[in-house]
Amino acid sequence: MTECRCFGAVAHYKPPSTDSNPTLEDPTPDYMNLLGMIFSMCGLMLKLKWCAWIAVYCSFISFANSRSSEDTKQMMSSFMLSISAVVMSYLQNPQPMSPPW
Amino acid sequence: MRSCLLLLPALLLLLTLPDTRGRYNDDFDDGEDLAEFDDNDFAEFEDVNEDPTVEVESEPPPKPAPSSIPVEDDEDEATVEIEDGQDEFEDADAQDQDMYSKYDKDEFEGYEKTNSPFKDTLIYQDVPAHLQNSWESYYMEILMVTGLLAYIMNYIIGKNKNSRLAQAWFNSHRELLESNFALVGDDGTSKEATSTGKLNQENEHIYNLWCSGRVCCEGMLIQLKFLKRQDLLNVLARMMRPTCDQVVGQIKVTLNDEDMDTFVFAVGSRKAMSRLQKEMQDLSEFCGDKPKSGAKYSLPDSLSILSEMAEVSDGVMDSKMVHYITNHADKIESIHFSDQFSGPKVMQEEGQPLKLPETKKTLLFTFNVPGMGNTSPKDMDSLVPLMNMVIYSIDKVKKLRLNREGKLKADRNRARVEENFLKQTHAQRQEAAQTRREEKKRAEKERIMNEEDPERQRRLEEAAQRREQKKLEKKQMKMKQIKVKAM
């Protein structure tokens, strides 16, 4: 078998730019991040416990779907915000959450 | 109980004693002689007003009543011992009622005689749930935390499974890749292109591998797109829709310019072909016809072909290629060869793009991992023959050359596409050119205005005027030439 490797013609890896194909990128982590922040703010301002819990879930889902190149600070701030929303709503009103039915 | 009955009249008597009278005396002190007051229980109420007299009238009844009580008690003493204690209570109640009924009703405002005033209207409030010593009331919170824990568990399990699958794939393909490529594994971070020898993890479900250093190809990017096993929502969605996508390995081979002739070709499952024809820029432009059946080349019915011309199909589908495709038809999603590859169609908001999108000579392979989601690391071995097919395709495409007719046809196709594109964007390009010219003029004018030296300003203005004059003359010349030609 003839040698087909060409050590001189090695090309460096160029990560595909996101500008060229924005449709191929998965928008889930960004949407979940945004949703998480909105629910956290609702939970904090309107003192709604279920909003705060949904915010925690949203930040978890965003973390699970995130790319490794994404900033961890963004993830951490989203987490902290949602957890603080839960804690604050329980401090203000220690009653257990009532189901909607 | 007898002592209670005795206490009651005693209390009443105390209320009417002279001691208390002393206090009232102070109230009625103005202008009255103390001596005039009899040593009478009711002297304080004399000469004041009628209300006290009313009170005086109401006072005596309690006096005889209490005095009668001991008599009654004496009478009842004998009976009380023998009879039930209830009689005493009945008598006490009766006495109470009698007492209140003998009082003047005007004295008591808002008082309504009721037999049992407070028994029915007592409301027992529940102890607030958070003060109860029970966790049961927090069942919703416990549910939420359980859900979170389940999500975390699924994340860890899914991530590990994907990682194991990726490693299994790499282990089974490593030898083949290292024998064909000088550089296997490069994450693009280091300055020099050195072989890292491992997969590049982009996500918890996407792994990349860049191979380079081979004759007739610039490089090969392999992307292992696994299912999102780390996301519980995705897992549940997959349970609902069992016909979800399988794990996909997308291999993009970028060829050097001289390594590929001008043609566009694709073969794959029917569904994938119809989807690609709509989505891909080059397939929609160059392969306008519907996907054809591969029966001519004895391919299974599940596969169809999209080709620029029949000669291309004949050239690509040689016996070995047909053999590969037929044996692994269930794993092949799509195979796409193109010299005009520019990715999927880009939807521009402001109309068409002004320039033709950049094209690259590319071979794209999309394979499905068998197992329909329940993949095990052992299944990765079955993809090795497909990688062999990829290597074979690279060599084949380099050797494949169209004959003269085919080449002419291909060139005409490309010219046609370019012309269409230019026509569509003509208006926009004109507008863009106009705006650019206006910008230039404005910039020049600004420069002239900003110039402080008046002499220089004048000179610049003159130069600009001369330039404009020249342009006008040129245009006029052109128009004349066109008219002459037309004639």
TrEMBL record, chain A:
InterPro entries in UniProt: ASTER
Keywords: Membrane, Transmembrane, Transmembrane helix
TM region(s), chain numbering: none
GO CC term, one of those recorded: endoplasmic reticulum membrane
Signal peptide: none
Source organism, top-level taxon: Eukaryota
Gene Ontology biological process: protein insertion into ER membrane
Compartments where found: Membrane
GO molecular function annotation: protein folding chaperone
Main location: membrane
Stored PANTHER family: CGI-140, PAT COMPLEX SUBUNIT ASTERIX
Similarity-based family: Belongs to the Asterix family.
Name this protein carries in UniProt: PAT complex subunit Asterix
Originating organism: Pygocentrus nattereri (Red-bellied piranha)
Organism taxonomic ancestry: Eukaryota, Metazoa, Chordata, Craniata, Vertebrata
UniProtKB/TrEMBL annotation, chain B:
Biased composition annotated in UniProt, kind: Acidic residues: 49-58, 71-96
Membrane topology: Single-pass type I membrane protein
GO molecular function, one term: calcium ion binding
Subcellular location: Rough endoplasmic reticulum membrane
Secretion signal span: 1-22
InterPro entries given in the database record: CCDC47
GO cellular component: rough endoplasmic reticulum membrane
This protein's record includes keyword Membrane: yes
Main location: endoplasmic reticulum
UniProt keyword annotations, A-Z: Membrane, Signal, Transmembrane, Transmembrane helix
Family of the protein in this entry: Belongs to the CCDC47 family.
Protein name stated in the entry: PAT complex subunit CCDC47
Protein species of origin: Pygocentrus nattereri (Red-bellied piranha)
Organism lineage string: Eukaryota, Metazoa, Chordata, Craniata, Vertebrata
Gene: CCDC47
